[in-house]
Structures are given as C-alpha cells and as structure tokens.
Design goal:
Blueprint: H1 13-18, H2 29-45, H3 50-53, H4 56-68, E1 75-84, E2 87-99, E3 105-111, H5 119-133, E4 137-144, E5 149-156, H6 157-173, H7 195-205, H8 227-256, H9 280-287, H10 291-295, H11 302-313, H12 317-327
Parallel strand pairs: 3-4
Antiparallel strand pairs: 1-2, 2-3, 4-5
Length: 347
C-alpha cells in the first residue's frame, strides 16, 4: 500500500458504516483548520515555543497528554498498520500513542470540531496498536479541542477484531446508498440512489408550486455547466433547504417537549463565556488591562449607539440616523458581507 492514503482509511470507516457508498468530497475549511491544529500539536511535541505555535485548544490538548501519558513511551503522528491474515488491510496515523501513567497502552486522537461517533476509526487504531505492541487491550482517548473535553474507553483485542473485521466484511459485500449524517460531506451527495429520490420528493411536494424538475440533467452540482441548468438546480436547492430547516426546527421542538425521537437525543448547547453589559466596568477593573488593551478586546454595535443617542437626545428616524453617521463619520466603515444569489422578480 501507498504511504499516502489507505483505500479504506480508518477516518472514513464511521461514514462507511452508515453508508457503504460514501465517498469523501472536497476538503472544506473545517478540515483545513483541523490540519492546522494537528500541526500545532506536532510542534508542541517537538518542543517548540507554545505561545508561538499553539492556540487554546491545542495547548489544552498538549497539557492533557503531558499530564496523563508516560513521556518516555510517547510517539506523535505514528503510523499504525492493521493486518489480517498477515496482509495489511488499512493503515492510519495516531496523533499520540504510548503508555499512560498507569501503564496502559493508549491511543489518542485529537478532534478540532464537533463531537461525533468516531467508534470505528478509534477501534481500528486500537486494534492496530495492539497488534504492534503485543498488548491484549488498549485505552482509546478522544480529545475534543473545541470543548476541551476528553472521552475514553478500553477495548479488548477480540472485541476490536469483531468490530473492525466485521465492518470490513460488510463493506466488501457492498450495499445500497443510505441517507445519513455524512451525506453533506459525500462526493455523491445529490446524485446517489439515496439522496436524489429524496430531493425529488421534496421538490415536487413541499413548495406551494411544485418545481418542474424533469429536465434537470444531473443532481451533481459540480458537473453542471449550463446556466439554465444551474438556475433550476439552485431553485430546487433553496426549496430543499427551506424544507430541511423547517423539518429540523419542528422535530427538535417536539424533542424539547418530551417526544422520544428514535436514534437521537437532546444534547445541551455549548456554553459560551460572556460578560453582561452591566458588568463591563467591573470586568475592566479586575482584568488588569490598560484602557487601550481592554478596548481592543471589545466590539461596538453601531445600532446600540444610535439607540442610546436617540434616547438621550430625544431623536428618532432619519434625523437620528443622519446625526449618528455625522458624529461617527471618521470611524464607521461598511463591512461587506458575502454576496447572495436571489431570484429576480417574476414579470
């Protein structure tokens, strides 16, 4: 096998478990950010300056590794080869591997994004590690930099073999495309046997005026070159997006009300540290920062300034807006947002 990418890489196994026809699409911004953070971890492992080569998520992860692992056994970006009947069936790279402070073989995987089900990827690393080190069990740790949380479990070699080899056997037997959480990351999204019928059903049933889709040549957006076809597919995409947003909103509301949605559970939203407007002065006083340093950490809402001036000076409407623009002319600038594609008015 090539050292670049395995045919069935461990990182693709969670998606392939959900849909055997999954094919990873183009790399997005989230994946690029993940690569950047993994590079930071490698630099920290190599002893480079943390302040210059780390960010809060990676500094937290590296500190966890230092606190919990035996540094004499620790390896970073370590290639693990999984064998079956003495043949390599896949390989991957463990972010960290070695023995923890209790002497347990431990494979560590760092994730920069949301918490998801990475079971098959992690168990594949664990099985390959057990084969490499000769241990019969392995501790698997997932470090989530975004939330600074660590999840871990221990698996025995026999259980890992049953899970991983069982999945590989199912994939070898093939199977139809299935709608799943990974559709948005799949190269076949919109054109496979699972998503295309679903799109067709929504496009012809959900809008007030069913869309005419019989002339659409392909649902694979990257293959469309005809502007007329682009317009038709874009209209369908907007309709499907509107339906999807509505469906998710109403079903989540039912879950909040206590309805049990099979296969799903409510998870509390991430908590974001914030300072109440009434506590800003106190925050400045205890921060230890200078006026300039503190102000550099703040953002100003022009709309709130306008509202405050209007209340203080009994002004409103166009006169208020013009006065605010006049006073703040030297500091206001117009921040340009990304363009949006909107439908022209029908004649």
């Amino acid at each position: 096998m090539s050292d670049h990418h395995a045919t069935l890489s461990p990182s693709s196994l969670p998606a392939l478990d959900k849909c055997p026809q999954f094919k990873s699409g183009p790399v997005g911004e989230a994946a690029e950010e993940g690569t950047r953070q993994h590079q930071q971890l490698s630099m920290l492992y190599d002893g480079l300056d943390p302040e210059s080569n780390g960010t809060p998520p990676t500094l937290w992860a590296w500190q966890w590794v230092q606190d919990n692992m035996n540094g004499h056994t620790l390896k970073n970006e370590y290639r693990l080869s999984l064998l079956r009947d003495f043949e390599e069936v896949t390989f991957g790279t463990a972010d960290f591997i070695g023995y923890d402070n209790l002497g347990r073989l431990t494979a560590i995987d760092y994730k920069s994004g949301q918490q998801r089900d990475y079971y098959y990827q992690l168990v594949t690393y664990a099985l390959a590690a057990m084969q490499k080190y000769g241990d019969r069990e392995c501790r698997i740790v997932t470090l989530y930099g975004k939330t600074e949380t660590a999840h871990n479990f221990v698996i025995q070699m026999e259980d890992a073999e049953n899970a991983v080899f069982g999945l590989l056997d199912r994939l070898a037997a093939g199977g139809p495309s299935r709608l799943c959480d990974y559709c948005s990351w799949c190269e076949n999204n919109g054109s496979c046997d699972a998503t295309a019928p679903a799109i067709t059903a929504v496009a012809t049933a959900y809008p007030d005026e069913p869309l005419d889709i019989k002339d659409i040549e392909t649902w694979h957006a990257s293959e469309i070159t005809d502007p007329v076809q682009m317009a038709k597919v874009y209209e369908v995409a907007c309709a499907v997006e509107k339906w999807a947003d509505s469906a998710k909103h109403h079903i989540k509301q039912k879950a909040i009300e206590g309805v049990d949605i099979p296969g799903y559970r409510l998870r509390a939203g991430a908590k974001k540290r914030t300072i109440d407007e009434g506590m800003i002065q106190q925050a400045f006083e205890v921060s230890g920062l200078t006026d300039a340093e503190f102000l550099a950490c703040c953002s100003v809402a022009v709309g709130k300034i306008q509202k405050a001036i209007g209340a203080k000076e009994d002004m409103k409407g166009k006169a208020l807006k013009d006065e605010v623009n006049r006073r703040l002319e030297s500091v206001i600038y117009l921040k340009e947002n990304a363009p949006s594609l909107v439908r022209e008015k029908r004649k």
